[in-house]
Amino acid sequence: MARAGVTVERLTRAAADLADEIGFQNVTVSALARAFGVKPAALYAHIKDAHDLRVRVAVLALAELADRAADALAGRAGKEALVAFANAYRDYAKEHPGRYAAAQMELDPETAAASAARRHAEMTRAILRGYDLSEPDQTDAVRMLGGMFHGYVSLETAGGFRRHPRDVDASWSRTLDALDAVLRNWPPA
Question: Which of 23, 43, 78, 104 is a good FRET partner for 156, with 20 to 30 A between their CA atoms?
């Protein structure tokens, strides 16, 4: 029988919080059960298994990140939109490292289509409308931005930039300036 007060939504949010505390890779049904003060078996009335739990955290993280990015993009275009989107992405990753890691999880096509994953691609393409890129250049630019944002954020959160005296925020700002310049001067095929 399902424990009173325990719902899939509460479990998912608690697992997301736990991911931010101990790392997404360490979120297990046992760890979540300990956080709720129950035996792991009690959670199986609400979730199938650890994979199901992780997928739910990934879907939650994608939705949170999409909402944050959409708020940041509202009313902006061109470089202003690029910077707002990039900062929303970076800030979310720094504030919610476990959720951010979850958002990188590969989802099956059906789950991805039903999640906010599509919104992320649509918002990135919306930014690119300010740069007048057509296909296939637009797809290449979406991939470039995603790779750059993820790469920078991953290196930063892993401490990869600590050994150099250059301010990380100054480098981030210059990187966004460079991306804007590349997008405004996209090379011909």
Answer: 78
